[in-house]
Design a protein that fits this description.
11 strands
């Protein structure tokens, strides 16, 4: 059974930055996809960003484009979410997820993903 572990969450003020990390002990293939989702209080979990293991292609939710950057470490199974110009509406629990075989796609539906972390809290004060 694979495991994912997020780190890097915290409390920041609006306009500040945070970097989340996800360490993965799961099977990774050239077609694998890594993603970040988030869930705000009282809301459903939503897609934030995804990256392909091979090639580093990316996909972002419109709400974070231009502010968040997803990246990966090619020597270890690690991936990141750099979050800049944070807003109070970014407050949520952030989850990392992996998909073993994306078949060239970067899905935004959580049901597509195989493994999930436990989540890390990000709180942005105004």
């Amino acid at each position: 059974q694979g495991q994912l572990a997020e780190s890097g969450g915290g409390l920041v003020q609006a306009g500040e930055s945070l970097r989340l990390s996800c360490a993965a002990s799961v099977r990774i293939f050239s077609s694998s996809v890594m993603a970040w989702f988030r869930q705000a209080p009282g809301k459903e979990r939503e897609f934030v960003a995804a990256i392909s293991w091979h090639g580093g292609n990316t996909n972002y939710a419109d709400s974070v484009k231009g502010r968040f950057t997803i990246s990966k470490n090619n020597t270890k199974i690690l991936f990141y979410l750099e979050m800049n110009n944070l807003k109070p509406e970014d407050t949520a629990v952030y989850y990392c997820a992996t998909l073993e075989s994306g078949y060239g796609k970067l899905p935004s539906q959580e049901s597509e993903y195989d493994y999930w972390g436990q989540g890390t809290q990000v709180t942005v004060s105004s």
